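The freezer alarm interrupted the setup, so I double-checked each line after restarting. Inputs confirmed:
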Amino acid sequence: MVRLQLRNDVSPALNFALPLAAVAFTLVLCSSLIRIAGASVVDAYGVMLSAAFGDTYAITETLVRATPMIFTGLAVAVAFRAKFWNIGAEGQLLSGAVLSCMVGAIDMPGGIAIALMFVAGFAGGAVTALIPAVLRLKFKVDDVVSSLLLNSVVLYGVMALIEGPWKDSLSGYPISPPIQDSANFPVFIEGTRLHLGVLAAFLAAPVVWFVIARTVLGFKIRATGENPEASRFGGIDTRRVIFTTALLSGGLAGLAGVCQVGGVHYQVMAEISPGYGYSGIVIAMLARLNPLGVVPAAIFLSAVMVGADAMSRATGVPAFIGQVVQGVALISMLVALLFTQYRVQFRKVAA
Amino acid sequence: MATPLVEMVGITKRFGPLLANDHVNLSIRPGEIVGLLGENGAGKTTLMNILFGTYAADEGTIRVEGKAVRIHNSAEALAAGIGMVHQHFLLAPRLTVMENLLVGMPRQGLALDVAGARRKLDDIAREFGLKLDPEQRVSSLAVGEQQRLEIIKALFRGARVLILDEPTAVLAPPDVEGLFTALRAIAARSLGIVFISHKLNEVRALTSRCVILRHGRVSGEIADPRSASTRDIAELMCGHEIKPTIRPPVIKGAELLSFSHVSTASHPGTALKDVSLAVRGGEILGLAGVSGNGQKALADVVSGMLRPVSGTVSIDGQEVHDFTPAEVQRLGLGRVPEDRLASGLVSSMTLAESMALPRIAEAPFSHRDLLSRRGIADFAQKQIREFDIRCSGPNARTGTLSGGNLQKALLARELAFDPKAVIVAQPTRGLDIAATRFVHEKFLALRAAGRAVLVISEDLDELMALSDRIAVIYEGRIVGVLVAEEATVSRIGLLMSGAFEKAA
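Predicted 3D structure, all chains:
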């Protein structure tokens, strides 16, 4: 018989090992899919690995792709810490992209434009995230549902924008007007897309970690998430904390959109996010809601995405394997989290 | 002698380092009401949870009618003829009495045997005098009736041994008599009953034999509880003679905590109705009452969790305006909530963080919005030492502490800031004797220092031992305030039961 027993304490080693175990389990499970698709597992993973990390360019591409996911991962991690279930990073990303694109299209000195794009993108995401937060605080609407459904609202709003008023009158493509050249993010290595936003993402993670771990606001966010009742009793205005958390979380997701506009696409188009907002959930869970863990988790998923395309070309295994890896990783991590709460005991049933 | 219905032999159960049951033997014979006595934390509930299959014993065997059985869950317990009425009822409030009885019953095909169930319910009503309207919704039943339903439920499923975990804790005195009558009727039909309690008079009035647990071990068995002296039983329970608390008189100071005509809205729970009450410096005021008579509303109002609809509350002479935790704290109120882990501390945070929680935005815990990790840890370290909180240190996860240490941590967190008045709810619930004594000593020290202490407790003995005055709350009203000298259990009990209304 198997019994689950509540754990008293979680060792730091276990905290570290769990995401790795989840990832390992995911890769093992997906290797059987690769076998079924008729390719050699070693070859497939080899191609993936070299496509993601094989040379300087590959590494920069992996990092560029990881950048929006670092932001959405941070967004989700912050929100989940307060138990504000923000599933809406995707929509917040798009809002941020739209607003930063509008700002970036205005003719002004490059430095100022880029700074304002960050501000506008943060604001766009923040305001979008406020909707489910306010609905929850005012009307007790479930934030999972409202933030999730809002993604479609924003997505189709953006589609309406790029198919309608923004549509390129010359080519007829559903894309927004581009931002000013001067607003294009500077690139660190010539011939790559390693842009300013990548640096911003790598800086954002420790900043968010500091806010959560070392500031009064972060303390209130953690306390509210862990025990809202005791937090209220202790004088924390938990409604305000949820409100602030939503602003912060949505803003971070908005920054993901800013990086896509300013560093990758230079305009808004439908392909601006292949679900980076949803990946943020997987990443935040893999990172166990630790902002510093978000960076490696995002790089892992980015590598899977970059690698899956290459693997698909080289071995004929469908690139959808990348999506499968994401999904399985999330489920494995959720199962793994069970083990941080419970100890599994095997015992014989007496005959 | 008849074969025991149930025999527990050498039952041992550990929770980590805590030995909750240590080779406990207990048998229940047909027609017997066995009292299971012991202080909070003596292992009574654990033992019964093992019998009911909620926990698995580490060692020992259970025999039902002479046959060794293994009980892994409540369904198996019921199948073996063991039923349990928990302290907290397990009923679906929106369903009717009948529907609650049918939940989880085996059925034939898709149909529920309602007619058969109704017959059975009538039988139970006739045999044991346990009547309930099958069509009534559980949410509209009084507490005593809900308890009756729990008992009926157990009998309905064929229980031959009935375990009742502190069944009188939720009842007003008149209901207790009704319960006892029903239990005697059940025992008269050769069923066995285990009656868990820590109230000596009840055990004496009801049981035919009683077993006393102390620190997880059987410390004694009394064959005829009716003739045993309170002192003997108490000594078996506590291991020492109970001495009355000797207190030097303290000169009463100003009113440090006062309510004037305070009423609250009825949601949630019982509302306060025109409550006026004052606690002076150097005074411990006990608030007695059957659970659910407005104690929570009163505690919430003072704690800044609930805004009254009318009336005023003053702390140290200053009127409370905002009714926020931050405000009452600023005015000099220390608060220890009833539910230590649900509303006091945060089990998944460190002890140091939990202790800093209510004042996190102030020195020494933070400086300009940045946490001072040193300040948080030093405070916890100092209080751990001063209050002798047993834990692995300031970084221990709060949830790993025992109830007594959690309570010490809560007191340590509040008393460090020298409050003018302190409100504590159920201060020693679930605590062992040493921790209880520690908590009581802290209250007496506050009293000696000229502070006001308001103790809300369901434990009359505790209130009698501590209080200078005892106020009784009934249906949201203060129905009487007795000074210690004139307070007797029977007078308070009468007030608690609302009997004064009939007298008037």
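Quick read of the result. The first helix of chain A runs from residue 12 to 36.
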